[in-house]
Amino acid sequence: MGDIPRGNRPLSPHLSVYRLPLAAITSILTRATGQAMLAGILLIVWWLLAAVTGPQAFATADWVLRSWLGFLVMTVALWSLWYHFLAGIRHLLYDARLLIDIAGARQSSIVILAGSVVLTLLTLILFIFA
Hints:
Layout: H1 22-53, H2 55-66, H3 68-95, H4 102-129
Helix pairs in contact: 1-2, 1-3, 3-4
């Protein structure tokens, strides 16, 4: 088998030949955001447990949560929450046999991506300036 000349043929399907549709990418991202929300939930649970444990534990947890890394993790968790929420609404529409065609799936993917970013920014603006 090793002596058969294969030529310069690409593998099928290969990344240079096949590109995932946007609906497939957003479907994969829905699963990833479900896992990403866990980081935010763990930080909030740690913060709440530290609040009932004592002032030193709370000061440490509060410092981590208010640091730039904590803000980044909580912002990603917030975006994940909005994204996952909008993707869930899309799946309800799929169950109702709406947006099943290729064009509808692509448009709903764009709406989910843009909507999650806009809702995250609005939530951050309300949180910071309220």
